[in-house]
Design a protein that fits this description.
Helix content: 25-40%
Oligomer: single chain
Bound molecules: adenosine-5'-monophosphate-propyl ester
Largest sheet: 8 strands, mixed
Strand order of the largest sheet: 12-11-8-6-7-14-15-23
CATH superfamily of one domain: ANL, N-terminal domain
Radius of gyration: 24 Å
Length: 650
Amino acid sequence: MTQIDNVLHENRSFPPSEEFRAKARYSSEEQYEADYRRSIDDPEGFWGDVALELPWIEPFDQVLDWSDAPRAQWFTGGKLNASAVCLDQHLGGARANKTAILWEGEPGDVVSYTYTELHEAVCRFANVLKKRGIQKGDRVAIYMPMIPELAMAVLACARIGAIHSVIFGGFSASSIRDRVEDGACSAIITADGGWRRGKVLALKDVVDEALSEGGASGGVHTVLTVRRTENPVGWTEGRDCWYHELAAEVDADCPPEPMDAEDTLFLLYTSGSTGKPKGIQHTTGGYMVGTYLTTQVVFDLREDDVYWCTADVGWITGHSYIVYGPLANGATCVMYEGAPNQPHPGRFWELIEKHGVTVLYTAPTAIRAFMRWGDEHVDKHDLGSLRLLGSVGEPINPEAWIWYRNKIGGGRCPIVDTWWQTETGGIMMTPLPGVHATKPGSCMKPFFGIDPVVFDSDGEEVTGEGGGYLAIRKPWPSMLRGIWGDSERFRETYWSRFEGNLYFPGDGARVDADGCTWILGRVDDVLNVSGHRLSTMEIESALVSHPSVCEAAVVGRPDEITGQAICAFVSLAAGLEGDADMEAVLAAHVAKEIGKLARPAEIRFADALPKTRSGKIMRRLLRDVAAGKEVTQDTTTLEDVSVIEKLQGR
Ligand code: PRX
């Protein structure tokens, strides 16, 4: 709970301007309170009404069945199709020729699709999947750059009822293999490459490597490759096919598969506090209802908005707030392929000016990087089109919040700091931009239907400002329904910490005297590096899988840009030297095992790691060492006190 000291002293607050409030969907505390009250007192009435705004193929009989808690069933008996919610419903009216996706590649190429065009492209894509024998219920892995075909691939799976499992393009071959095997995927959709920092990321090669050693990933019968960068790729006859070749052979007529509300829409793997990533399972009806409403209300969406969420579709933010939520609302979404500083550190601001972006949703890590790159890159661009800013993925420090508000938002745009998780599917806590006087660093209030509570370590409710463990009391439509193939772990991880089927997200929180929530960071062994979730144990197992390593412990240390940075403590096999070369070798090994995003920022070598007499590594102590703090904790249980002095370099 590292943030608690600075946020306790933050008492500035920023109400929305009268101009913003005048046009906002929600513009007063009373209006928010009234709907919030109803959503808590009568969740079925509230969510039932919201759900009726979506196009159902068959109506639902019951809004919520919680009788088998924590297994929730929402909108039972109802049938719908997520791609039809995103596309078909907009075709009849004024949105038919509205831009759905406005995409810009890193080299500056621009392509846009109207709703009619996107619908046609998705139907064609879906027919290509069918032609390759992919059926309802099959799992399809997607490992792609941020190109429009990524959104199409996702929606095409949804259209035919195949379960997509998107793997972020920064993961390594062995991470792909693990996810493909765990989900027993029968196909992988990829691209020859994508542009990142002026270079081609050869994604198809990584997929080939992932599949090269067979194993259970031998069940993959199709690798469908979209052509983007035109770099040469390896080819396995029979298994591999070019998207553009098959697309030319199919038509664009593909009726949406009627899906049960509780049919799985997708899996998305995320790190937990143990070594193995979890396949978080989301279903169709509840997820669509949740992402539809949160997008509309939190971003105060208007028909003429040009909305840009800068996340990658490989993460939950991209699923919910690039693809499903915005398209379900008929929004115009900007999508950008590349790095924020390519070819210059003002690329984001150039994109906003060029495309007239009105709503920007990005991560604190990016904001802090832009602050460091300098105001001059912002000053070159007219950001007057912006009206609303969002933040997601990690706690935002007040300094970055104020810079975002003043420098990017011109002091006029409200900021919505949205707290949520892969597991929650959609935004859980946030201000409403036309309602709340926002405090820098606070995610403010629960969204409709969300009933949070803070407990101390004994499970007693914390009523004052002290802070403790966050829990959620009621089920909500877009909540996860399980961990793929591991129902026991699902119960154990999320539902067993507190009595009475309360959801435990693994975050600490504090509620101030005004009822505003401050997220204090993870309370488990999960790190948040640049808004990316990583498990310390996963990185430790990657390190110890290297023959030179005897033992490893990984902790996070505070970092000005990335929020947390990975610090690894390693003891090497006898006779080996912990020098810069060894550090490079081990960092490269972690990148190979997991992906570059998991590479430690620092590796410290020691003959032994600090342990209790019963043999447990003392992580709290290592966290202090990593942060350069004086070790103040009680070290009397430490087996060998001199270890600490050595680690501190004394
Ligand atoms: O610790 C919280 C942090 O990110 C975690 C969820 O990570 P992930 O599943 O990858 O989803 C990220 C995008 C929703 C949470 O447990 N987190 C997310 N948003 C915030 C946040 N911490 C503080 N403030 C936020 N707005």
